[in-house]
Amino acid sequence: MNRKKAFLSLLLAAALALGAFPALAQEAQADLLVIGAGISGLTAAIEAADIGIENIVLIDKLAYVGGSAFLSAGILGGYETQKTKSLDLHVDPKDMYAEQMREKHYTLDPELTWITTEKSGETIDWLIDRIGVPFLDEVGTKDGYGTLETIHQVEGGGGSMRAPYMDALAALPQIHLEIETRATSLIVEDGKVVGAVVDRNGEISEIRADAVILCTGGYSSNRELFARLHPANAVFQQSAMPGSTGDGLMMATAVGATVNNIDQLQVYLREYNDMVSQTPYLYNLFVGLEGKRFMDEKRTAQTYNQEIKDDIVAQYGRDGVDYFYAINDHAAMEMFDLVEDAQTRPGVVIADTLEALADKAGMDAEGLKQTVETWNQSVAAGADAQFGRTRSMMPIGEGPYYALQTTFFSSVCHGGIVRNALGEVVRSDGTAIPGLYASGEVTANASSNGYTISGAVTWGRIAARSAAAYITE
Ligand SMILES: Cc1cc2nc3c(=O)[nH]c(=O)nc-3n(C[C@H](O)[C@H](O)[C@H](O)COP(=O)(O)OP(=O)(O)OC[C@H]3O[C@@H](n4cnc5c(N)ncnc54)[C@H](O)[C@@H]3O)c2cc1C
Q1: What value does the mean pLDDT of the chain take?
Q2: Could you confirm whether domain 266-410 is CATH 3.40.50.1400?
Q3: Could you tell me which CATH class the domain 30-263+414-472 is placed in?
Q4: Atom 22 of ligand 1 has which residue's CA nearest to it?
Q5: What is the pLDDT of residues 335-381, one digit of tens each?
Q6: Cα of 440 to ligand 1 centre, how many Å?
Q7: Is the CB of residue 262 less than 8 Å from the CB of residue 415?
């Protein structure tokens, strides 16, 4: 070793000892690395173990597992399940498929959406039989989840899935779960994905594997990425998991994956100051600062949110603020038992007349009065000529009047990595990236509301089976 090299080695050793550089160590080879332990990653790891893969590493960057599904209400659509059969309910999957395509305005991949739909019942039965997830016995329709009697609900909400999933995991020694372990990039050798670089609280190392499944969820919590991928999406506040920062999207695109539907989000109506409040759904009219309506307010209870999102973005653009007002009269507030609460709630403006309400809220008073007059005529005529609203056609009557500062939050991303029917991640030319699979919200979604958790489970299993076939080839 010459003197310069010796000096550099000494410097490197000193730097490592002082912690200036993170140590880079190579770990033992796994058969399969699953990145992200939300419901899709948990499912993929369990399915891989069940079909004989022996050394599976499952990592999550957070200190807990389960992702969004364990925080959700646990609503899953499916047909011909053990629950629907016992109720003698029979829904044609072709109708389910057609409804999802319609609701998402045909932005979904037809082949993949058919697979999500066709397997939705089998997925619910798998959750019951294999994992032990408790479901309520009733199955039916639910506001916001389409018109077909397919909606199953986890008893006690999504959180009730945690214990059975953890029990299933604990019974599978083939799965090594590591929390607080963040994948930062994928390792590619000879054109194949062979593992990932991971960061454990600043300690950097490699996890090598014959195949990798990305299950890192969406990107709602990463505002910078939101703005970069689709600037208009950046105006929405977010109510997703802290782990939903688009890591998988960035890792996959860095190795050649293509993405689509990146402008598509699911947005939820919330109070400007309260990301969980459902109260705005109880208000009658939505108006911008000109006091004018801009959408069918009751459309928000339907399953397709993208068009609402676009209406809101346009309204924010006109007003230059990222909120609008939801308006009710006193009778409606009394009916919904909101009068007392409104007195102290941040973001609520109350006044005896529409003019005073507009003044207090910074709206155009003439615009608001005209809007209310037109709306009341529409209610009397039984038709909303402006926006075609058909639900909850209630007039705005006597004051006092209430205006609630309202906005939309994003929680679910419908855009993401493109994968094929085998769950293989593909490039823009449609060819698969060897060794790389993806499932769940990190992928370009192939389902409408109510089929997102179900899809994450279905596709976690598909990706696991495809990865297992690739590993054992
Ligand atoms: C509040 C809420 C309610 C919902 N309700 C419903 C519902 O009732 N029905 C329905 O169908 N859908 C619902 N959804 C959507 C659905 O829950 C999600 O789309 C689905 O659970 C996503 O699962 P996933 O495993 O793909 O991703 P996630 O649940 O997002 O899990 C991804 C995991 O990957 C981890 N991760 C991310 N990056 C890395 C990295 N670099 N390294 C390691 N780990 C990483 C994250 O920490 C996280 O644990 C809801 C979503 C939210 C936010």
Answers
A1: 91
A2: no
A3: alpha beta
A4: 441
A5: 999 999 999 999 999 999 999 999 999 999 999 999 999 999 999 99
A6: 8
A7: yes
